[in-house]
Design goal:
The complex is a heterodimer of chains A (111) and B (114).
Chain A: E1 3-6, E2 10-14, E3 19-21, E4 23-26, E5 32-38, E6 44-50, E7 56-58, E8 64-68, E9 73-78, E10 87-94, E11 99-101, E12 105-110
Parallel strand pairs in A: 2-12
Antiparallel strand pairs in A: 1-4, 3-9, 5-6, 5-10, 7-8, 8-9, 10-11, 10-12
Chain B: E1 5-7, E2 10-13, E3 19-24, E4 31-38, E5 42-50, E6 53-56, E7 65-71, E8 74-79, E9 88-95, E10 104-105, E11 109-113
Parallel strand pairs in B: 2-11
Antiparallel strand pairs in B: 1-3, 3-8, 4-5, 4-9, 5-6, 7-8, 9-10, 9-11
The chains are: A mainly beta (111), B mainly beta (114).
Amino acid sequence: AQSVTQLDSQVPVFEEAPVELRCNYSSSVSVYLFWYVQYPNQGLQLLLKYLSGSTLVKGINGFEAEFNKSQTSFHLRKPSVHISDTAEYFCAVSRSEKLVFGKGTKLTVNP
Amino acid sequence: DAGVIQSPRHEVTEMGQEVTLRCKPISGHNSLFWYRQTMMRGLELLIYFNNNVPIDDSGMPEDRFSAKMPNASFSTLKIQPSEPRDSAVYFCASSLSWRDYEQYFGPGTRLTVT
């Protein structure tokens, strides 16, 4: 069975600062990895996904993530955040049509 | 496309009452998922359907919960009788196919059971 650990429940940063949201997964087989974003009072929206190929994945809104198989990690990064990036971010893993989500990381961008 | 549509957006009910949550997936999508989100447990998959057929309901908490998908454009999640611990946000999501992996989420139904 797959599982996901998001190491930080809350991450406060200042506007225009870089940010990294950490995600580690455990699985005995190859998996697919995802980052979703949830803005307040909304559903989840896909930011980016890794299925195969290049380990550096670029997503929407300037986010990117790097798949590291040896460290079983899929950390999300953005070089310069905006106030509008304030949201909750979920890492997810899948080997089939079922997604297993982490507990989420609340990113708060302060002016 | 209107995206995944859920109704109602908010539901407040008393313990013991029946609650029905509704979902309309994106047209042409063949897989539908019901999730529950709480502070304590995070986002949990309750059940999912492929081509209107329930594939895995292992996440359904107990017999008080049931889900149906009578056709490709409609699904319901029913709780009978409801209990305060059922209070949560319930999300419906759909995907093009089981191989698509990308799920599109609705806005959710916030359920409060008093």
